[in-house]
Amino acid sequence: QDAEIVRTRDPELLARCDVVVDVGGEYDPGRHRYDHHQRSFTESMRSLRPDKPWSTKLSSAGLVYCHFGSQILAGLLGQPEDGPVVTALYDKLYENFVEEVDAMDNGIAPAAGEPRYALSTTLSARVAHLNPRWNDPDQDTEVG
Q1: Closest listed residue to residue 26, CA positions, set 40, 5, 8
Q2: In the chain, N or C terminus with fewer CB closer than 10 Å?
Q3: 3 belongs to a structural domain
Q4: Is residue 139 part of a domain?
Q5: Number of domains the chain contains
C-alpha cells in the first residue's frame, strides 16, 4: 500500500526496485522479477502450476497472477488460499480474463485460420487508447 511505482527501463533504477514487472528481461520470482520478453521464456500456467490446464504462454500480467492471484483473492475474500472458493474464483478469473491478456500480449491469435469476428473491445485495445498516438508531439504517458 505504500509502494512507489517507477516507470523506467533504466537498468540502474530497476536494480534498486523491490519488484520489477514487464521490463528488465528477467523472470526470477525469488527476486521478484516478472518479465516475459526474453527469447528463452516459455512459461505457461501449466508449466508453473502443473495442477492447472492452461498452456498459453504467460505475459507479465499472467506471471504476477500466477504467483500472487490466490493470495490476493484469499485476502479480499477472507477465505483460505487453498479453499474451494478461492480456487474456483482463481481458475475462473484466469480462464475468462487473464488468459486473454496473456495471449494478446504474446501475439497469440484467438483462432487458427480466419477469425470468425473482429475483437474490437479487448482489454489491450482499451489500454492502448489511453496511450498517446505515435505521432503526438506530447508523448508524456502520465498526462491524464
Answers
A1: 40
A2: N
A3: no
A4: no
A5: 1
Q: Are 27 and 41 in contact (CB under 8 A)?
A: yes
CA dist 144 and 130 (Å) reads: 9
- Checking if the pLDDT of 134 tops 80, the result is no
Sign of the torsion angle spanned by Cα atoms 61, 63, 65, 67: negative
Pairing assessment for the beta strands 27-28 and 33-34 based on DSSP bridges: antiparallel
> pLDDT value at position 121?
76
Q: Is 32 a domain residue?
A: yes
What phi and psi, each to the nearest 5 degrees, are found at residue 111?
Answer: -150, 150
Whole-model pTM over 0.70:
yes
Nearest to 36 by CA among 49, 25, 44, 28: 25
The answer to whether residue 142 is domain-embedded is: no
The pLDDT tens digits for 70-80 are: 999 999 999 99
